[in-house]
Design a protein that fits this description.
mainly beta, 13-stranded antiparallel β-sheet, 3 helices, 13% helix, 52% strand, elongated
Length: 207
């Protein structure tokens, strides 16, 4: 699947209420009422959205070891446009038509201003990327791309049993009973209650 052929929809919607785009015991992504949304299409099929409004990202990036908990919860306010790819059918009922005032509230002079910014985000994210159909065909499988302060992307990939979060300073992977946490100071690997901790400048500790 080559995303060079993607295009944005002609219609821009807004959230009629707060919407949880993703929610499990490991975290959530939600957007507030009146968040703007334009769909991303590939071969005329809706494959996701670009959102801009007020939102929140929470990730429980904590690994339990016999010596105690390592890591911390990640919490970020989503005030910049971000991308969602995957199953979005369930949120359709919570998206309604926009008016000019909706764009003004978000700092745009017109609908086109938001579409242009969404187009720029997609262009930067999809440039040179190739994805397989399996990335998007799994029920409830989602990919989020959040812009960070380095003008790059923090990525969250979530499916029924797997979670991968990759940001500038942390990588967190959770797959059922297996967890990996990588931060600037240490790497923690946990598998069914057994864990290995590698701290910078120190030897490997087996818990």
């Amino acid at each position: 699947m080559i995303w060079a052929k993607y295009k944005l929809d002609n219609t821009v919607a807004r959230a009629s209420e707060e919407i949880r785009l993703w929610h499990t015991e490991k975290g959530l992504v939600e957007i507030s009422k009146n968040t703007l949304a334009v769909s991303v299409r590939l071969n005329e099929k809706r494959k996701g959205y670009v959102f801009h409004g007020q939102g929140k990202l929470l990730i429980d990036a904590i690994v339990e070891t016999q010596e105690g908990a390592i890591g911390k919860s990640i919490e970020k306010e989503l005030i910049e446009p971000f991308l969602l790819l995957g199953d979005t059918e369930r949120i359709q009922k919570d998206l309604v038509e926009t008016s000019e005032s909706d764009f003004e509230k978000m700092g745009y002079k017109s609908r086109q201003g938001f579409v242009d910014k969404a187009e720029d985000l997609c262009e930067r994210f999809f440039r040179g990327r190739v994805h397989s159909h399996e990335d998007f065909d799994e029920p409830h499988g989602l990919i989020f791309a959040f812009q960070n302060e380095n003008s790059k992307f923090d990525i969250l990939v979530a499916s029924s049993s797997k979670l991968v979060y990759k940001a500038t300073d942390v990588v967190f992977v959770s797959n059922e009973n297996k967890v990996v946490l990588k931060s600037p100071g240490e790497v923690v690997v946990s598998d069914n209650g057994k864990s290995v901790v590698v701290q910078k400048g120190r030897s490997v500790l087996i818990k």
